[in-house]
Amino acid sequence: MDTPRILLVGRVGQVGYELRRTLAPMADITSVDFPDIDLTQPDSIRHWVRETRPHVVINAAAYTAVDKAETDEATAAKINGTAPGILAEEAARLGAWIVHYSTDYIFDGTKRTPYVETDAPNPLGAYGRTKLAGDLAVQAANPRHLIFRLCWVYGARGGNFMLTMMRLARERDRLRVVNDQSGCPTWSRMIGQATTAALAKSLTATDSHTAGTYHLAASGSTTWHGFAQSILDQMPTAEKKCAVAEPIPSSEYPTPAQRPAYSVLDCEKLSRTFGLKLPDWHTSLLQVLEK
Fold it and tell me: Is 105 tagged catalytic?
């Protein structure tokens, strides 16, 4: 294939921003975001795919307001559930690939060993339900799909836990962070790099044997409190009012949406298929903070 054409939906998000950087050397990219594309409007979605006629559609957009989704599930369902299916369907009409991002929140967190791709989903809230609907819609609409389930995404831009903790540490002399939820903090840049490598292999394969659902997360795991304390430890003393985070149970920090207590992802399938293994979460965190 000559230089592939890629339609990237969600250009300004954490993952979308990194994808624009990592994909640039290998593809001709058209990147769009709201309001140019409205994922609640099927005609808007179809217009962009039919106008650009890409070899690959990458959906890096989502309704990610986990708590707000509890009272706005209809909108979340359109963006997270219906829109991915339409993108996948339109891509299939062109014989194109669809790359879609899922979430650890499709699991209920009752397991105590890392989740594999074949574990039964059981989302606890509206966000997880709508994201699962999107996964199923993509799988049903286009056999040439790469679905990457992500976990605790953060980076040097956008709205994320790392930047929030750094801001609060500068503003407050006390931080209380839940210590009974475990996951894999994953740098958005690593997601962009891994996606690019997996897509390059898929586009050059003689068949679609790489298609499927994959867990894509940093190695190792921690709690939100462990993540927060690691962030604080790396901040210069002069930049923070708070140096130690206080661990608390989730019951002391109630939220509208229930989160899975354990959402560590097993990424062995990604390693077997693409030879990709992301670094340990703490190693990546140090790299982000150094930059």
Answer: no
